Amino acid sequence: MNVVILAAGMGKRMQSSLPKVLHALAGKPLLLHVIDTARQLHATTISVIYGHGGEQVPTAVAAEDLRFALQQPQLGTGHAVAQAIPVLDDGVPTLILYGDVPMTTVSSLKRLIAAGGNDKLAILTAEMPDPTGLGRIVRENDKITRIVEQKDASEAERKITEINTGIMLAPTAQLKRWLGQLSNHNAQGEYYLTDIVAQAVAEGVPVTSAQPDAIWETLGVNSKVQLADLERTYQRNIAQQLLEQGVGLYDPARIDVRGSLQCGRDVSIDVGCVFIGHVRLDDGVSIGPNCVITNAHIGAGSTIKAFCHIEDAIVGAQGQIGPYARLRPGAELAEDVHIGNFVEVKNSQIAAHSKANHLAYIGDATIGSRVNIGAGTITCNYDGVNKSRTIIEDDAFIGSDSQLVAPVRVGKGATLGAGTTLTKDAPAGKLTVSRARQMTIDGWQRPEKIKK
Hints:
Structural class: alpha/beta
């Protein structure tokens, strides 16, 4: 089928210079949610009609499978759809979606497509207890005869609770003709897409309807308040899915997923956690409160304690991370690695059973198995121009408050004494110490404050 997505609105009530359809829901632009849904329907063509914000919209969502058409000026929904006429294939029906209605499900749209087929006009309608401001579905003998907008409705028509969601499927050849016959003789002075219903009825084209699985599928965004409400609905739906999969959530109202979260069995997630991008939690993973995890894989049985930040990183099975630890891009931890409080790891590989439990920075390093990194240790990987690598081999022991000035290698089983500044390779199996000589000064007097 053809898909046309209307995304030209200004969104004055958003109080923002950013086009309305580019505001984020669950970390992704509203419009991109709609585009992804259209892709799941295997659309022949996807046309995005943009207007306000200029090239911001096509620039933000550009892709080879999308076609863009500028609506300038904005003269209504019918005028917007007409901008796509040159690329619409008459041989398949056209589905019309809205860039600010991001949560319509594929299953509901498939129901609409089935109702419309190739030769009917199908409208997604919904029962709304308070339909104020929305177009009403007017029926005669249970058949849809027209759609009337709020500003043009009579008192009797305003009492109708079946509303038009705006989403519809139309036979394309007829749609093109109907769009050319639209009039703007109405309260808004616009070309309403909804007027094609009366044209279809007049031509004897059947007008059918389908209903969504849930009313939130039809909700659009016109203000930051509505966006915030929809965000909570989106996150509540995700939490419900996780619970049904067996994930333990301490509080389903306090989790945010901005991407995809894949969980194994017996996973538990405490409050205030945010998951961004693609995150995978294997069996038995425990996530403590207030963690932010981005594009990461956490291995089976690992524990991520409170207030950890993990980004573009891998944690092996049975890992112990945090609290207050940070794994930056390129951190790859093997099984049973311990990264403790206020430890930062960046672009480094740490082999099995190694640990850095306190106050350390590990950057651009390759660390072997069973290595102990003492408190206050840092790898000095940056000279102001280039970054160099530190290599620590198996079974090494790095004493507290050591500085390893890269490029440097610590041999297998080597020990660095506390306070060492290592600028040359430390040989395997030996103790290396580099520190100032300790002295005690006899006869030294502590200075006293001068009394005035």
